[in-house]
UniProtKB/TrEMBL annotation:
Domain Acyl-CoA dehydrogenase/oxidase C-terminal per the UniProt entry, residue ranges: 235-381
Gene3D superfamilies: Acyl-CoA dehydrogenase/oxidase, N-terminal domain (1.10.540.10), Butyryl-CoA Dehydrogenase, subunit A, domain 2 (2.40.110.10), Butyryl-CoA Dehydrogenase, subunit A, domain 3 (1.20.140.10)
Pathway recorded for this protein: Amino-acid metabolism; lysine degradation; Amino-acid metabolism; tryptophan metabolism
EC nos: 1.3.8.6
Pfam families attached to this UniProt entry: Acyl-CoA_dh_1, Acyl-CoA_dh_M, Acyl-CoA_dh_N
Catalytic reactions on record: glutaryl-CoA + oxidized [electron-transfer flavoprotein] + 2 H(+) = (2E)-butenoyl-CoA + reduced [electron-transfer flavoprotein] + CO2
A single GO BP: fatty-acyl-CoA biosynthetic process
Cofactor(s) named in the record: FAD
Domain Acyl-CoA oxidase/dehydrogenase middle: 132-222
Similarity comment: family membership: Belongs to the acyl-CoA dehydrogenase family.
Protein name (record): glutaryl-CoA dehydrogenase (ETF)
Length: 387
């Protein structure tokens, strides 16, 4: 029997029946609803908000959180498969779900009160309340400890001042999970759209993640009630804990991008005739295609084992860093090679390779740059912090 070119080691056979059902459901959604429109959305610089109700109805928002909050209660591997199939469509779609689930719903669940969970999580699971995550600042990037945004106590409220940058979902969001310096360390606040002094400005002229909303957030004496402070965490471990959740999903997402690019390159190279034979009949093309399959296989096995560790409660941040580093680098290299195999056709949005290649330029940067994750692994190996 011929092997599946996108799953040479039959990783799917290692999934449970429920995990396979989740993957199949999201794959159908991507095939039927995302792929027909996403090239045009990318070209227009538009996030397809019309898909939000369907994404929510499939249980993809906060999918790993308990059912008591209107969520699906799925395991970590299922969440990873959701990310993989969504990013097979586009990184922007997966980013929307990642931010809503891992960066907004998760901190409310993990660091908030039961009242806060009941207030926001069910509506977020239904897609009625959209969130964004405010950590990165204009000058900060990879150094979140150098945070300038601050909040001071004023009676029963907090007064928030500062700015955040490169915020996915910013202009879509009804609430923002904002991290700020206080006299008692870094704390998280739920800032609501319409609070006086809070403004979001969409970032235009992007060449990457064009089918995604990216914004800057500004806080000018924004008065936030104590009821909107996340009380159960202080310090950088709060936002970094959220990033670990999001990075886990990102280790899976680029596998989808890479599979989409390999699929396109395979089909095109079999159809394209040069010098009297298909491009796929040349050694140069087969070497490239074989290398793509090798790297995808390695990434699949890494993410599956990472998911099993997460479900067992044994996942460590360094393991996430290694997987994010390996898998995003794998995907961006495959996207570029696929674009090359397509020749001139590869530069148009009628094909997916250039879109994925451009998107992955953001994915390899956000949630920790490749260099940061390399240094995290280096620190683990040596015991020496080289940051």
């Amino acid at each position: 029997m011929a092997l599946n070119p996108y799953d040479l080691y039959d990783v799917r056979s290692l999934l449970t029946e429920e995990e396979r059902a989740v993957q199949d459901t999201v794959a159908r959604f991507t095939d039927e609803r995302v792929l027909p429109i996403i090239g045009e959305c990318f070209e227009q610089g538009r996030f397809p908000t019309e898909l939000i109700p369907e994404i929510a109805s499939l249980g993809l928002l906060g999918s790993s959180l308990p059912e008591q909050y209107g969520c699906a209660g799925l395991n970590a591997v299922s969440y990873g498969l959701i990310c993989q199939e969504l990013e097979r469509g586009d990184s922007g779609i997966r980013s929307f779900v990642s931010v809503q689930s891992s960066l907004c719903m998760y901190p409310i669940y993990a660091y908030g009160t039961e009242e806060q969970r009941q207030r926001w999580l069910p509506g977020m699971a239904r897609g009625e309340i959209i969130g964004c995550f405010g950590l990165t600042e204009p000058h900060g990037g990879s150094d979140p400890a150098n945070m300038k945004t601050h909040a001071r106590r004023d009676g029963g409220d907090w007064v928030l001042n500062g700015a955040k940058m490169w915020i996915t979902n910013g202009n879509l969001a009804d609430i923002a999970i904002v991290w700020a310096q206080t006299d008692d360390g870094i704390q998280g606040f739920v800032v609501e759209k319409g609070m006086p002094g809070f403004a979001a400005q969409e970032i235009k002229h992007k060449m990457s993640l064009r089918a995604s909303v990216t914004s800057a957030l500004y806080f000018d004496n924004v008065r936030v009630p104590e009821a909107n402070r996340l009380p159960n965490v202080k310090g950088l471990k709060g936002p970094l804990g959220c990033l670990t959740q999001a990075r886990y999903g990102i280790t899976w997402g680029p596998i989808g991008s890479a599979i989409a690019c390999l699929d396109e390159a395979l089909r095109y190279s079999k159809e394209r005739i040069l010098f009297g034979r298909p491009v796929a009949a040349t050694q140069a093309a087969q070497l490239k295609l074989a290398d793509m399959a090798r790297r995808i296989t390695a990434a699949q096995l890494i993410s599956l084992q990472l998911g099993r560790l997460k479900d067992a409660g044994r996942m460590q941040p360094t393991q996430v860093s290694l997987a994010k580093w390996n898998n995003v680098r794998m995907a961006i290299d495959i996207a570029r090679e696929s674009r090359d195999l397509l020749g001139g056709a590869g530069i148009t949005v009628e094909h997916c390779a250039i879109r994925h290649a451009l998107n992955l330029e953001s994915v390899i940067t956000y949630e920790g740059t490749e260099t940061v994750h390399q240094l995290v692994v280096g620190r683990e190996l040596t015991g020496i912090n080289a940051f």
